[in-house]
């Protein structure tokens, strides 16, 4: 698989969503009869799409609405929701700031200390509204926040960082023992993020209930530019899925993988499932919802880093309701609305009756898939030419 890139150095080629296409199968299925559900920690969800734990995407009302539609939204415990009793003013200030001011403002806003009382309060608010309460924080805060969230009735706890491994070396602080944490936490734990077979396999050994796949593909993330690291999502998902399947064969325990980031349109979501994902996590597409707290703006989780921000604030606009983005009717022509309709139609066209069958459809390398025959769309900046 590897090619020579210089004397004594080889590198393998990896692929992203724009470089592959899905091949229709020998049979087709009525799209209304396919099953898009996925199972996570003994619970069944009809929508295999999670909303990312980003402050411009998920608030308490957003999480409640997402749950009512059959999906899961993850609330960021490291962000404005736990730093401010009423984050509305702060979110409005971020939305109104100029591009030149945005990063510095976000850095300043996130210096306000986290109020531990708000960790439990936000969970309780989601539960009171009838929502599935999933929350996220960085590894350093997990030992402190997890008990508070559990006491408030949290359903799922996500430990998330730019790059997560089972072996973190540090002398200035005590690294989180993932095996111990997963064992002690009484609710399902999702770990992320990683992109390789080996690390996925090692994280599976911790006893977690799910793993997030992806480093740097998010629309508001600049990690790949700032740090030069990352693996395109198709390859990273395929490799992680291989580790999941090997672990299942070895232990009999099936742990879902969740492709996180890089998907702005229905076709990207479909390709993620064809690559082996059990579910996907999306940020920018949901930031465009009327219910999103970012008011048409979206920023990366590491944008607030005081010394080396690895994200930026982008304007995504408000295009419709969360229900429109998930189920339609679509009012835009670029595939960013009715994501579930796109997934069902794709599954039907490919002859995949379930998400698991979708994991095995034929894929081809097709770098011209986005441009072939689309000259007028590109010239006029409509549809696939946007």
Description:
With 386 residues, this protein is an alpha/beta fold. The protein has a single domain (16-385), classed as TIM Barrel (Alpha-Beta Barrel), CATH 3.20.20.70. It has helices spanning 60-68, 80-83, 88-96, 99-109, 116-128, 142-151, 178-184, 197-204, 223-226, 233-251, 266-274, 284-287, 322-327, 339-350, 355-358, 375-380; strands at residues 2-6, 9-12, 20-22, 38-40, 43-45, 49-51, 72-76, 134-137, 156-160, 189-194, 210-213, 257-260, 279-282, 297-299, 313-315, 363-365. The chain is globular, with a radius of gyration of 20 Å. The mean pLDDT is 92.
Question: Top keywords for this entry?
Answer:
two-stranded antiparallel sheet, 16 helices, 386 residues, 35% helix, alpha/beta, TIM Barrel
> What is the straight-line distance between the termini?
33 Å
Q: What portion of residues belong to β-strands?
A: 15-25%
From the 3D structure, determine the CATH topology. TIM Barrel
Q: How many H/I helices?
A: 16
Which CATH architecture? Answer: Alpha-Beta Barrel
Helix content: 25-40%
How many domain units? 1
CATH class identity: Alpha Beta
pLDDT averaged residue by residue: 92
* Rounded radius of gyration (Å): 20 Å
- How many DSSP-defined strands? 16
**Spatial sequence of strands, sheet with the most strands:** 6-7-8-9-10-11-12-13
Biggest beta sheet attributes: 8 strands, parallel, barrel
Give the low-confidence spans: none
Q: What oligomeric arrangement do these chains adopt? A: single chain
Overall morphology: globular
What name goes with the CATH superfamily? Aldolase class I
Instruction: Label the structural class.
Output: alpha/beta
């Amino acid at each position: 698989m590897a090619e020579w890139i210089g004397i004594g150095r080889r590198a393998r080629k990896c692929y992203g969503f724009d470089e592959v296409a899905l091949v229709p199968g020998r049979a087709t299925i009525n799209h209304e009869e396919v099953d898009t559900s996925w199972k996570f920690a003994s619970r069944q969800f009809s929508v295999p799409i999670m909303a990312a734990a980003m402050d411009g995407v998920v608030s308490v009302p957003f999480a409640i609405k997402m749950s009512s539609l059959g999906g899961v939204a993850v609330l960021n415990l490291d962000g404005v929701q736990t730093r401010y009793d009423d984050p509305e003013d702060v979110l409005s200030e971020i939305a109104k700031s100029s591009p030149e001011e945005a990063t510095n403002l976000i850095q300043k806003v996130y210096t306000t200390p986290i109020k531990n009382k708000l960790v439990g309060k936000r969970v309780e608010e989601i539960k009171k509204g009838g929502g599935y309460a999933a929350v996220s924080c960085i590894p350093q805060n997990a030992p402190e926040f997890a008990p508070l969230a559990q006491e408030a009735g949290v359903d799922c706890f996500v430990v998330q960082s730019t790059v997560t491994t089972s072996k973190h070396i540090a002398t200035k602080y005590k690294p989180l023992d993932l095996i111990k944490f997963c064992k002690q936490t009484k609710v399902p734990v999702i770990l992320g993020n990683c992109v390789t077979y080996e690390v996925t396999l090692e994280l599976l050994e911790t006893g977690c209930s799910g793993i997030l796949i992806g480093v740097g593909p998010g629309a508001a993330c600049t990690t790949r530019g700032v740090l030069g690291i990352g693996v395109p999502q198709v390859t990273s998902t395929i490799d992680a899925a291989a580790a999941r399947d090997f672990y299942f064969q070895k232990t009999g325990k099936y742990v879902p993988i969740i492709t996180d980031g890089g998907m702005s349109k229905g076709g990207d979501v479909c390709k993620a499932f064809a690559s082996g994902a059990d579910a996907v996590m999306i940020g920018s597409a949901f930031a465009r919802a009327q219910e999103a707290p970012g008011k048409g703006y979206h920023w990366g989780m590491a944008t607030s880093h005081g010394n080396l921000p690895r994200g930026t604030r982008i304007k995504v606009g408000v295009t419709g309701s969360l229900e429109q983005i998930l189920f339609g009717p679509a009012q835009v022509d670029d595939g960013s609305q009715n994501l579930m309709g796109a997934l069902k139609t794709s599954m039907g066209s490919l002859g995949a009756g379930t998400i698991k069958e979708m994991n095995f459809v034929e894929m081809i390398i097709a770098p011209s898939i986005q441009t072939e025959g689309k000259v007028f769309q590109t010239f006029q900046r409509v549809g696939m030419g946007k």
